[in-house]
Here is the input.
Amino acid sequence: MGRLGTRRGDRGCPGGSSGEEAGREGQYSEDSGHGGRTPASGDGFAGRHETWRFLRLVEGVGGAARSLEVPMNMTTSIPTKYWHPLEDGRVQCDVCPRACKLRDGQRGLCFVRAREGDGVVLTTYGRSSGFCVDPIEKKPLNHFLPGSSVLSFGTAGCNLACRFCQNWDISKSKEIDTLADEASPETIAQAAEELGCRSVAFTYNDPVIFLEYANDVADACHERGIQVVAVTAGYVCPEPRADFFSHVDAANVDLKGFTEEFYVRLSGGHLRDVLDTLEYLVHETDVWVEITNLLIPGHNDSDGEIDAMTTWVVEHLGVDVPMHFTAFHPDFRMRDTRPTPPATLSRAREIALGNGVRHAYTGNVHDTDGGSTRCPSCAEVVIERDWYVLGAYRLTDDGHCAACGAHVAGRFDGPAGEWGSRRVPVRLASFAGRGTG
Here is the structure.
C-alpha cells in the first residue's frame, strides 16, 4: 500500500495560488523541544511510522495568535506522490490549488499532509474520527441506491477554511484525539459487508486530503462488491483528482456559492477550481454526481446568484444532475447569521426547476414535495421522501417510471432499501481480526 514520493518539475493547478498558503490560518511545525520525531530509515520514506510526538500550533485567525501543544504520538504516516521540490528548499504540496509550500516539520492548512524529510507524507492513514451507518440520502444522494445504508467515516482536517462549516469539530480539528477509531481498508470493507451496507462514504471532512487512504479503502470495498461514495468540495488539482475519482462510484459535490467573492471571503478558495471538477466528473468519468448548495441568508441566497448557478449547471453539466438546496444553521464562525428559512429553499428549488434542472430538492427540512423525485416525463412521484424516509416507490429495479416507462437518471439496482432514517455509530475494532471470509 505504500506509495513512493516523486520529484517532479514545478507545476500547479489552473487558478491555484502561488502565495504562502500554509500558515494563512495556521502553521504547523515540529517542536524539537518535545522530543522531535521518530526517524525512518533512509530519507524518511521507508513506509508507515510514528511521527511527531508534539506539534506546536500557532494560529493567527482574526489577528488573535495563540500557541498550544498537540499530542501526535500515535499518528501513522505514509509517503505520498503529489508534491515537488522548490528551489528555495521548500516542498510544494500539489493535491489542491492551495499549493502549500512547506519546510521540514510543517503541515499544510489541511493539517493531515506534512513535510517530512524531502517529501510530503499523509499523517492520518488508517485513522478515523468515527464510523456510522447512515441512510444514503443523508450524503445527500437521492438517485444512488435509494433507501440503502452506507458506512460513513472521515478523518480530521480540511483544505478549505469555510467560516460556516457545519462539521467544524471534525474538519477543523487539530487534535489527534479526534481520530479515535482506526481500521485498515480491509476491515472497513469487511465491516460494510457484514453490516449490510451497499456503500462506504468518505464524508464529514473532504477525502481529497486523505486520498491515499481513501483509494485503498475503495479498492478493498470494490473487491467485496461494495460501492464507494465521496462527499467533497471538489477543491483538488487535476492529476490527484483523476487518481482519486477513478476509485469512486458516486459523489456529492458541495458547490458552496456561485461568486468568486463568496469563495475567497467565506471559504478561502476559488470558484473556478470547483467548477472544473464538476465538469470533469460529469463529462470525463462514470461517477454519478449530485450537487449540494448550502444557502446562507445574506451571503449566497439571492435570486440572481441561484439563477446564475442553476443556469450554469444546465448549460455545462446537463439537466439530469440533481441539485440539493440545504438549510444553514448558525455554527463555527457564523453563529450570528440566522438559519435559512424553509421558504428560501423552496424558492431556490423553483428557480432551478424553472431553468431546466430536472431534479431539484430541498434539504435539512421536512418537505415531502421538495424532497420527492418525480418522473421527468409524466411528473408522477416515483420516490416519495420526507427528509431521509422513503414513502411510495414507483420505480422499476433498473430505474424506469412504473407509470410511463421513462428512464429516471441515476444508479438504481433492485428495489428500494429499507434503512430509513436510522443513524448507528459503529466501532470497527470489533470487526478487526475476524478473517477475510
In short: Residues 26-122 form one domain. The two ends are 21 Å apart (CA to CA). The chain has a mean pLDDT of 82. The longest strand covers residues 288-295.
